[in-house]
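Deliverable D5.2: sample structural annotation.
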Amino acid sequence: MYFNWRRFNYVFIFSLSACFYSCQESESTLKYLSSYAVQSSKGSHAEIVAHDPETQKLFVSSADQGVINIIDISNPRIPQLIDTIDVSKFGVINSVGVASGVVGAAIAHHDAQSDGCVLFYNTDGQFLSKVNTGAMPDMILMTASGWAIVANEGEPNQDYTIDPSGSVAIIDCVSEEPFKMELINMDVFNDHENELKQSGVRLYGPHASAGQDIEPEYIQYDAATQKIFVMCQENNAMAILDRINNENVLVPFGFKDHSLSSNGFDASDKDGQINIQSWPVLGMYQPDAFRVASYAGGTWVFTANEGDSRDYKGFSEEKRVAKIVLDTLAFPDYKELQKDNNLGRLKITTSLGDIDNDGDYDQLYAYGARSFSIWNASTMALVWDSGDDFEQIIAERYPQNFNSNSYENDSFDNRSDDKGPEPEAIELGFIGHKVYAFIGLERQGGVMIYEVTHPSHPQFIDYVNNRNFNADGELEAIGDLGVEDIKFIDTKDSPINKPLLVTANEVSGTVSIYLVNITM
């Protein structure tokens, strides 16, 4: 059952009337209120969402349209489009943020390997300033203190012949225009390649220096320590830039042992069944979105362990287990493992696993961990991981639509060979004396909710999915597809004095608003 997106190439507002599983139940943790939708025949049309509590406006990036949509949510049941800011002439918008009356938009150059820029506006959409950054600004964080911090990913071209260095831009939005910018280039890690590799950081791009290979993807900032946390997803590592001591470190996340019973997963999209079990596979955590928060006597990093590969015309690390040679001592049952019903279909990296360099693979490394994790920000030691919770919960609640993809219904088990439900977005909410984590699943859809008041002992609360798996293609009936970003709106910042959750859904193009129905 495929969705015909070409029918929807306009902007409109709608309220869903169909009953979408648990999100419509009175006892649900998230009570659906409304949606605003941007529809187009192409892709990425509701990617990143930012909220300004002073004006009760949402700022939503739409790369397909090349605009920032400004949406009034003073009545969250009836969101209204106020205006759009056209940024298309500058390049491709990847991210948007807002703080202290300033809106920042991260814009990649049309020639992706050239330097991009950040455009600044006030919350009425009036232009303030333009600041050039490094190549491919991918995420912008606007801080309450008046700084914009930008992750410049610096991806290579398709032939892998041009590979700009990754970087982080720090822009002073309080200074007189044009705003001043400092660039921290990942070249600071050059000449330490061997040391970094030995520590577990993945540096593997062909002929790439450390600076070229490190690709900043996502940014968080801890005001107390003045540390900038930089997610380097493909590298399976976190860069920590210490502004006080002028020290920069790159810390690997390590690997998840899927041979443990609590870390099982479904590895095949061709077996026609739900088959969550342990496998002799190591998972690269490779988070995308993450959050940093200080409470309960420490500072914690919360990660959505999506996973990502480099798959270019000039270089690709992807292969299926059936297409590689397994070491017969490490995998004495290799013939059975390489069947499509077992591990044969699983996508793994060829950049790791051949320990003795003899051409066969002694270990298998898969993309992502199909989970969310909590790390100690001081040591980056793993505090807790959700194991195989996500797939187990989906199997229980959606057995007919387990591990579906985000583009079509009737896609049972489609994503099992490739990162499963794919946790993409993560947000924290402080409600009363408790702390909650909201994790968005890009492929399956929906939001997993955990109480994380005690970081070493999280508790699963609910899974809410505003997707109708029985829809036949009518947009109003489909619901949300492809959660890309989540924003929690605290009670004090909410237009209705109750906590809200906003999701930006890349495939359906919907920005949906939920009442967080949790008792303090």
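Annotation notes: The helical segments are 193-199, 210-213, 334-337, 389-397, 475-478. Residues 12-308+368-516 form a domain with the Methylamine Dehydrogenase; Chain H fold (CATH 2.130.10.10).
The annotation will be released with the project's public dataset once the embargo ends.
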